[in-house]
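Supplementary material to the annual report.
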Amino acid sequence: DAGITQSPRHKVTETGTPVTLRCHQTENHRYMYWYRQDPGHGLRLIHYSYGVKDTDKGEVSDGYSVSRSKTEDFLLTLESATSSQTSVYFCAISVHGQETQYFGPGTRLLVL
Amino acid sequence: DQQVKQNSPSLSVQEGRISILNCDYTNSMFDYFLWYKKYPAEGPTFLISISSIKDKNEDGRFTVFLNKSAKHLSLHIVPSQPGDSAVYFCAARKSGNTPLVFGKGTRLSVIA
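Predicted assembly:
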């Protein structure tokens, strides 16, 4: 699992509340990514980071923000959760010199 | 527009037979292609990959074929086993640590 953990693993929240998901890695990899997985859509990139304080938007970034204040943590924030953000969220890392990405176990988020 | 397409949402195969999963892409800048396998409630796991300079890569029961002129790749699993039942995602990336672009996935069911 390349030392990737995600927290929480499950969360139920109400529309309009802020939510922060955490991705933690133990091996100081530079590149980190947030994806969401939805039926009929596969995996879609939300935001990614190429270093501390260096982030960029992905395909479905609206309604999400990210922060990376230290190498090991990449936070995804839903400022005001909506029902359309009900999804499974996966964090991933790239290992330098390898073409693959490795994924965390996911966070299942339900917005009521 | 979808840059990576998996046109078959599902596939059912008898145990011991060959499974063939297909993937098409539109972006000629992609130079690395990957297949991921995903079980329910787990993160995607890397299965096999191929560089654009090759047309075949084999790893045990898994072989990926790339036809650059047709912008098509396929994953062959021989022989198929019940434990192969999962969702398979095709992904592609440009050179460097660029984010992966995923297809929508194909659900493979291997029937004993």
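Chain B has no helices and eleven strands.
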